[in-house]
Design goal:
Length: 489
């Protein structure tokens, strides 16, 4: 009978990925990884709720009976279609006028929205909350409320819990129940970018690697995987064995861009299958191409380099930390290993201090190391620094100097090497090269969570961990640089 219970959390998981709901029910909880994304979502939701209803909410059915303006902790249950038992635990209920079993007031459910738009997941979870709440309070729930942001920027959106939404729910619930009753988990989600948010990613990554799942090939997302499946190519080893020209012809019917990418995908699959990196360019004669001195010609004569990494809060469009590591060249060459004596300089960018002050600090700092290349991994740092400089009225000569100094190590790596990695992100590439982050299990989302907690509650230890993470990202960039230097004849 327990297998027939469907909760709002299972519904939410299923709408994100069918396999995820199955694992939530049948998976070994010990294999589920902690993920900062859920904690971030809950802290955002809490901030929205506190802006909507500043007074502390009441708890459970007693608070509903007492007419509290806001209520949390009300557990709802009811029989659903096909013998399912439905259970839900709405995040917040807001009091509205109208009669109910509790008197001259009733409630409606409130949800904190993640992202910019209302999704099917938000709608159906609210529809479930509305349905169960209507039964519990003996009065209809025509609308739900969705909130996002906080303070003066709080956004409110009403959602009509109409018959259409309820019909969708009736269609979804039996499918979900049937899938949870299966012995085997559903397949991996088509677009595995979503997996980064999911606690089951460790388990699913292992499964994907074991199966030689096509999503393991760097460059293959949901759409390309579908096209390959249509061609009868179902795994990484099979793609590695494919003829690139035949594949290009076959994919061309879907658009010229697919024809062009076919050879790259086959080559990437071959490198991953063999485990051996492949050099993309042979070094041309000296003086004919900057590539003559290897992927990083800027380092040939530099006295040192700055490693540079930004930490950001993408929702708030806030680059809150600009971190640098100073790497001087030794008398003979570039250091082989990171040296604990390398200076780390974090520049915190507090929005209340304004952008002009940040720009002046960055400018002064960069001027201390004139002409040293500034190495970063990915385009974020280049875009952010140049845009900041432009907004602050930097002259063209200064902008040109910055453009010359900023070196995107990721772009250079992609231009010169094909690696046996399933992603060219810093974590995968530096990890493949043997680099280890000093704080296990920490990622950008965890760092962002610490940042938001530090902004709210302070705590020197949180700030130290953010700096440590940022410094490690810089050292990981150095690991990639060092590897590139080691490959250069
Ligand atoms: S890691 Fe990906 S495939 Fe696995 S359950 Fe989560 S979202 Fe689905």
């Amino acid at each position: 009978m327990v297998q027939k219970v469907i909760t709002d959390r299972l519904l939410r998981s299923w709408l994100r990925c069918r396999r995820r709901a199955w694992l939530d029910r049948h998976g070994d909880p010990g294999e589920r990884l902690w993920t900062a994304h859920r904690a971030l979502a809950l802290s955002d939701q809490l901030a929205s709720f506190q802006s909507l209803l500043p007074q502390r909410p009441g708890h459970g059915v007693a608070a509903c009976a007492a007419g509290a303006p806001g209520v949390v902790g009300l557990r709802l249950r009811s029989p659903g279609p096909g013998g399912i038992e439905l259970q839900a635990h709405p995040a917040l209920l807001e009091r509205v006028s109208g009669p109910s079993v509790w008197g001259e007031h009733a409630y409606r459910p409130v949800l904190g929205r993640q992202g910019r738009n209302l999704t099917r997941e938000h709608r159906l979870v609210l529809a479930l909350w509305g349905r169960l709440l209507a039964e519990r309070q003996g009065a209809p729930v025509p609308q739900a409320l969705v909130v996002a942001g906080a303070g003066r920027g709080l956004q409110r959106e009403r959602l009509t819990l109409s018959g259409g939404l309820q019909a969708q729910l009736d269609e979804v619930l039996p499918r979900l129940a049937a899938e949870l009753g299966r012995r085997e988990p559903p397949p991996l989600v088509a677009d595995r970018k979503k997996c980064v948010l999911c606690g089951w990613r460790g388990l699913c990554d292992q499964d994907a690697a074991r199966q030689g799942h096509l999503s393991e090939v760097s460059g293959i997302g949901g759409k390309r995987r579908e096209l390959l499946l249509e061609q009868g190519i179902t795994s990484l080893p099979q793609l590695a064995r494919s003829d690139p020209e035949q594949l290009a012809e076959a994919l061309a019917v879907h658009g010229e861009q697919h024809r062009e990418i076919a050879a790259t995908l086959v080559a990437q699959a071959r490198v991953q299958a063999s485990g051996a990196p492949e050099r993309l360019r042979s070094a041309p004669a000296a003086g004919t191409d900057p590539g003559a001195a290897g992927p990083l010609p800027e380092l040939a004569t530099a006295a040192g380099v700055l490693l540079y990494d930004i930490e950001s809060d993408p929702d708030a469009r806030d680059d809150f930390l600009h971190g640098f590591v100073v790497v001087p060249r030794t008398a003979t060459d570039w250091p082989v290993r990171p040296d604990p004596a390398w200076r780390y300089q974090p520049l915190l960018a507090l929005q209340e201090h304004g952008e002009a002050r940040l720009w002046q600090r960055l400018r002064r700092y960069l001027a201390r190391y004139p002409a040293w290349p500034v190495l970063h991994y990915g385009e974020t740092e280049r875009i952010a620094l140049l845009r900041l400089a432009e907004r602050q009225g930097a002259r063209e000569a200064e902008l040109a100097g910055l453009r010359t100094r900023l070196v995107d190590v990721h772009a250079r790596l992609r231009g010169h090497w094909r690696l046996p990695v399933n992603s060219y992100g810093l974590k995968a590439v530096a990890g493949w090269q043997g680099f280890r982050w000093s704080q296990a299990g920490v990622d950008g989302a965890r760092c962002l969570l610490w940042w938001r907690q530090w902004r709210r509650d302070g705590g020197a230890a949180r700030l130290r961990r953010i700096f440590q993470y940022n410094r490690d990202d810089n050292l990981a960039t150095w690991a990639v640089v060092r590897w590139l230097l080691d490959q250069t004849p």
